[in-house]
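pinning this so it doesn't scroll away 📌
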Amino acid sequence: MPAARRGPAYGLLDAGDLTDTSRRRFLVSGALMMGFAVTGKAWAQNKGRGEQPTLRAITPGGPEQGAAFQGFAPGGFIRIPREGKVSFIIPSVEMGQGIYTGEAMMMAEELELALEQIEVVHAPADEKLYSQPILKSQATGGSTSIRGAWKPMRQAAAAARTMLIAAAAERWRVAPDQCFADQGRVYCRTNGLSLPYGALVDAAGGRPVPQEVPLKTPGQFKLIGRSKQRVDTPAKTNGTAVFGIDVQVPGMKVAALAMCPVQGGRVKAIQDRGVKQVPGVLGVLRIDDAVAVVADHFWAAQKGLQALDVEWDLGPLATLQSNHVRDRLVAAAENGKPVLGRSVGDADAALRGARSTVEARYDLPFLAHATMEPVNATVHVRPDSCDVWVGTQVPAAAQTRVAKTVGLPPERVFVHNQYLGGGFGRRLVPEHIVQAALFAKQVPFPLKVIQTREQDIRHDLFRPAYHDRLSMGLDAKGMPVVFTDRVTGGSVLADGSFLEEGLPEGTLDSDAVEGVAETPYAIPTVRVDWIHERSPVKVNWWRGVGPAANVHVLESFIDECAHAAGQDPVVYRLKMLRNNPRGRNVLKMAAREAKWGSSLPPRTARGVSLHQSFGSYVALICEAHVTPVGEIELRGLTAVADVGVAINPNSVIAQIEGGVIFGLSAALYNEITFTDGRVDQSNFNDYRQMRINEVPPFTVKLMESEAEPGGIGESGTVSAAPALGNAIFAATGIRLRSLPFRRQELMEKGAEKNIIAGTAAVAGLSAMLAGDAGEQA
């Protein structure tokens, strides 16, 4: 592994830093019986080979006593040496969301440390120690990290603080309540003495871990709730941060891929006679559905691919067209067998008795994740062990899958997790890591396998496509009395991307109805069900998971009902939020901040969305202008969120901003379509993201709250599309019920003539300039 890399401010470490002198130092110190260290046997076995040693947590009785997230097992999270900075082992992965800082702040708060006194370490793959209590696995996703860590991490730190204080009190022969901790030292109120934590680790390490430790209340917080610089910022600004694609290990070679253009196809034959003549190329590897050219560097491997001729068996999806997908969803919605998601009252009877009924159908496309860093993995397979350098949201699952692929026990596969250049769910399924392992086990050296951006988009595991059928029965005042939604679409769990065995027939995938089965609103009668129409292509969770699809449909439909009732969309929602004070408060503040109801120019309007997802409440108001030719121009964004206790407000605001922009990019530009089984999109030219000049003034406000923290990484994405769609309707009177929003449907009558005339004028000017240039030449 490379030498340790430390940012100048916080001493940030990566997994490779748990080596050599640092390991021996923590082993000798005991680190409060709380540090990660190498067993003597493992160190002796591995030192000579230069391999990554096995890591284990030193806790009383060993790690088998319980996972780091259960009860008090500070050994999973904290390491205090005799000298130097305290290390926090962070179980969640850092993919730009600021989780290293948030989780470090929670532990530093209870351990009475400043962020400058700590260093952050990637947690190794260990399902037992780092199984997250909400997802029940060592995984980062679903806006669950802070929610899952809120109590266990603070308990671990508070236990460590209590043990250090008790050790100091015993040395000074005073009662523990006469001592307190601050800034990495224990002080005595009686005699004025103090000691640094490092001087107490040996004595503290021999004490029993306390089982009941009081945690700070919000009024006692010194770090939590205050905006702090992220601990990963220095390394990411000075260039020392290592992402998966940056990894360099001795003897490493690089592979570029040719992948079957149709999912489910196979390699039929290859013609590689000219490949090895390319300088730097070492050879060609083959697996069932892909071919790799291996070379000294990526450019040589890419040049080798150009000399490679692959014949493909395109398989059963060779005739797949996008219109086939929608036709199947519509047919399934009419004829499929639904699985009940939620039922309150008799929906059919309530619909028959309603004064009026509003009905609508919505369609959502497949979506790619389009992370900034395309997927990659570096794998070194040896007869008795395997190393994997990668950025993944699921290190333990990656370890298990690679072990199965290369034929080793999981404990002999060492996953060195790196920074992730974006996740958004793309890295929740380790299929690309398995692909790299399949190639790497054919060679004796470490092999880095990189997909190009075009391959990453075309061979992504996409968000499922959906078709929704909704009905709302209204009373004489236009208020909802009954709501139904039939969601039809694929399933990440049932279609085998995440669970190889899928789901039993007739089992509800709760993700399919999340965000619409439970809503912020008081509606007396509800029926939400799901029809599973198996996706023809592999699917995966996407930023915002179920609510990203379902809240868009619900909030757009609520707007339709408000307009059908002749009521203001914000006032209409407030009437339905009578039993939801947190929802009411964020909506009212957003309306005030955005000056809801004030006059705007023609074809300019505001739209609103509200939801409670991942334990947080978010209202977003979008102001948009639609030009006569259908161009959508954003004029302003206002978001208000109640996330409970905001650990690091700066990070919360950044996550809302980034999530909204991610969601608006999808609403304006993104869809994955198929022609003859092939994905039509390939890069940011045809799978566009919002550009900086398109982002309008953006205001984010956070409500004061002492509630337990909610998730926020995906809430902005969930909010975006419905707020924009509702603004478009208010500006034009046109309701767009499919994504992405298409400007052709928003043109004023006759506007297309202006587009044609403008295009002709530009073409004429270009011709004139070309002619002048030719004459001058």
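📌 and the second one:
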Amino acid sequence: MTFDRAVGLIPYLQRLGISHFYASPIFTALSGSTHGYDVTDANEIDPAIGGREGFDRLANALKEAGIGLILDIVPNHMASSLENAWWYDVIEHGENSRYAHHFDIDWSRRLTLPFLGDTFEQALENGEIAIKPDPKTGRPALACYDAFYPLAPESWQDDPDGVLQITDKAKIAELHDRQPWRLMSWRDAPHDLSFRRFFEITGLVGVRVEDPTVFDDTHRLILELVHAGAVNGLRIDHVDGLADPKAYLERLRQQAGEACYITVEKILGEGEQLPADWPISGTTGYEFIASLSNALVDGQQLAALRDAYSDELGKPVNISAELRAAKLLMVGKNFEGEFTLLLRLAAAIAETEGVTLEEETLGKALRELLVAFPVYRTYGTAAGLPPADSALLQKIADKVRAGVNAPDADALDFLLRLLAGEISAAVADKATTFRTKFQQLTGPLMAKSVEDTLFFRQNMALALNEVGAEPVPRTFSTALFHAEMQTRLERQPDALSATSTHDTKRGEDARARLYTLTEAPDLWAEYVSRWREMNHSAVKALEDGVAPKPSVEWMLYQALAGLWPPRLQPQDKAALKALEERFLPFVEKALREAKSRTNWGDSNDPYEEAVLGYASHLLSPDNQAFLQDFHQSLQPFIRAGLVNTLTQTLVKLTAPGVPDIYQGSEGLNYSLVDPDNRREPNYSALEQQLAAQAKPDFSHEEAWFSGQLKQQVIAQILHARQQQPTLFRHGDYLPLDASGEQAERVLAFARTLNDTVLIVVTPRLVFSTEEVPLSNPKRWAETAIALSGALANREYRDLLSGERRRVGDTLDLASGTGHALVLLSESP
């Protein structure tokens, strides 16, 4: 998406009611980057999308339209690429480079460059490495295919022509040994890396923004755009990756000014809140998705779905054990190097302190502490741990001590003292380094263990396998939802309320549909058993077991159920082919992320081919018996899912928080995990659809199935938000209770501010009605909501239908239109 193309969308965004345009990183990134998080120059706007001139055109057009601009910025990492001039300089000059300490590099050894397909020795033997002039500089470089690694000047300046003439492999190896860096295989990165990377991605190197010089160098253009008024807000990517998030945010706030809207990408665990002393507006909203599940999951029947899944597997699932296994895998393999570094630091400090501990004993304690961490991180600094984090650490330690895998008590106590800063002044700096590295590891460990391993292994309910969700069983209820919204209003009323992002595991409407499986678990299990039998011939017997096994089949049918377009017909060969082209990459990713029988670093080709073949068979036009059955069986889930879409959308638009509408999600979003969810929406179709109808038409079935109804509801409520900004930002949140036959199928709440009242009533758990549109008021017979105080005896206007109605002390749902209500009253 170029700046100039984005300018063309502004009139549409205005009609939709958008207040701010929220852009992914716009700074110069790797050539061909599709996302911008692999920044190579933080002080240049990417020429590939229009450069500074294009940006200025967009910023000016947005300002003229009265729309603000929020930029996503990436302080934690940059691309470890030769395209990055700072990184190139570090490779060339080593620790003498001006930028040597801009990156989080361990300079006690040579800089590792893990970009070879094999060891350096083997690559050299294969003739893949030679000395050639760098095409850009003309200076001698170590060439490997299209990459030219600059040589340290002192290694060639005395005889540049002679160096360029070297062809002897032994002499090339000797020259390589004289560099401040060494080339190595990418396979060795997990256990032998000299720089902090972003999660497991060696192509992204950690940046030390805790250093004021580095902060200034990486934020010069960002702050210039903020001060010029071109940018109104900043979204901070992966704030937990920073050495000291609070200090960073305080510096950013001080330099960006109080008016700048700042949110952070931060995953909150269950019951966890943002530190109250962070000077920001809130998170980017993953916890809001988890809150919504309380309103849309049938908690009473979830156990039945779990039992059905266990029956498919032939055994019950112990999620706690599965989580532990995933974390142990990450600690022992994927993050082996980070773990080893921590262990060596701890052992060195112990030796200095005169604490006698065997490395194996200390390692077990460190491993158990990491595995037991229930949140992304603590926020200790050189001054020690904040009181809340100190209490959390003690709680974790108590759990570790009481566990069946309890480590040596002395080793655990030593690590706790180390993290708390209860250590002698002689090793205070090393203890601070240990604490920082520990805190920068727990986040990636949690993310990769849960979101990118466990959630691809355990497939009971894919709708619950979402970023920010809890991996262990929990309760779901509207009471919990209401409590979380009241806390949200109190703690972060200006946080983003997300339902889809570029990182969510599936689009919001796919998730809304899959929630309905919890309403009919026995029926879903019956369908899966029948479909497995129908497609049994596509299952392959391999040396390492059948492919796919039952748990993977269960996953495939759920994923396909979430992806299936509402109006797709089984005979449509072109539509099936288009679906297959999206489904198969997802299946491959799901298998590799699960890391059970294949993974990204060591793929199991026969297994992958067998499962992909099965997935392809499901969507083959020749498989009509299954396709017809699948399509027909899915219809009630599709219809109930569309009602969930309505409820999810209305809640996001009216509950505490700032609605974040991810690209194209004003229409129906049935996307899969990235890269599928990053496909460009059909903006032309969306524009035409919005222009075709001004107000929501709940009686028109096609409006539900096309996404037009969702889009119209968004436009209607967003314009109301513009007229009542204070109510939506600061208004109290009041849960409302329904009574009567359909009480459990209603979610209701009010927002109040002074004399202004908003009442929201929307359906939930409607699977058994199989009714879309929800146009029959009789379905709400004997169902009402009691009103009291400022809510009662008022005239309200329905923001969705435009109708006015006088309401006493009871809101009778059967007297309405049968669909959701959003009632606004500005005076008693």
